[in-house]
Amino acid sequence: MRILRHPAVLEPADRGSVVAIGNFDGVHLGHQIVIGRSSEIARGLGARLAVLTFEPHPFQVFHPEVPPFRLTPFRAKARHIEALGVDLLFVLPFDLEFSKVAADDFVRKLIVESLAARHAVVGYDFHFGHKRGGTPEVLRQLGERWGFGVSVVAPLGAPGGTVYSSTRIRQHLAEGRTRQAAQLLGRSFEIEGRVEMGDRRGRTIDFPTANLRLGDYLRPAGGVYAVRVEIEEDSPPRWRDGVANLGTRPTVGGTDLRLEAHLFDFAGDLYGKHLRVALIEHLRPERKFAGLAELKAQIAADAAQARAILAAEERDAVG
């Protein structure tokens, strides 16, 4: 997949695609349906499959004061989009000036003149242009005017009737419901980043950890999780079982928020390496212990619980 960050001027080979348009934060199952519909149309037309997205997320631009909320910062979003077989990822820089562009100008300048898109696919709740004046119906009308097709994907839900929604996924994660979030994402929620040097205290109690900052990621419920961890440099890639704490480490007087992951049966050096940490199940909230001995005993109990949960999940997957 090629990533084109400024799609205003494109080479001829990159024009004429079928393009799915949206923020696609989380690349959840609803988003995958939109991109999947685009893929079907692209195959039928013999066109390339493209996704047009916006960075930073428009909500961040309009509300810079809000806490981090992203399910997939750009690197993670791009990887999940690429896994869907997308040929081109157009990344449109979003700022307050761009937000003033009227809906019809957005379509004329970008979809028609820059991308020369043959077909556009959006979700039922997609809005675009100044003050969100562009709706799926407006896009249909503009498509008729400018000669490109438009498909609008209706709301679809998970088993039980829940509509696929980034907002609903954030709610689940904020309350520690990782399984429910995974049902809407189509995979476990992940936090990824480069391992930073910590205080190395975990080594002194026989539970060394890899420390990650959360950056732009949503803050899930704090506490201890059963996790699976992928080390980017592993070849071939593999998921390793582990246990992680998401919090401020009150037992040792910590104040900054970190994700600290302990990988089972692993003795390598992870400093500076890029990890993906999948939150499988929330085990308990973070709490303050009387000292390191009590903390070590609780981590051992958490690790045993995490091992049992992950082993049972693996057996179920095989069975």
Q: What keywords describe this structure?
A:
single chain, 319 residues, alpha/beta, 6-stranded parallel β-sheet, 6-stranded antiparallel β-sheet, 9 helices
Characterise the protein shown here.
Helix 4 packs across helix 5 and helix 6 packs antiparallel against helix 7. A hairpin with a 7-residue loop joins strand 9 and strand 10. The chain has 319 residues and is an alpha/beta fold. It is built from 9 helices and 12 strands. The mean pLDDT is 93. The protein has a 6-stranded parallel β-sheet with strand order 1-4-3-2-5-6, with helices on both faces. A 6-stranded antiparallel β-sheet has the order 7-12-9-10-11-8.
Question: Can you describe this structure in just a few lines?
Answer:
With 319 residues, the chain is of the alpha/beta class. The chain is 32% helix and 23% strand.
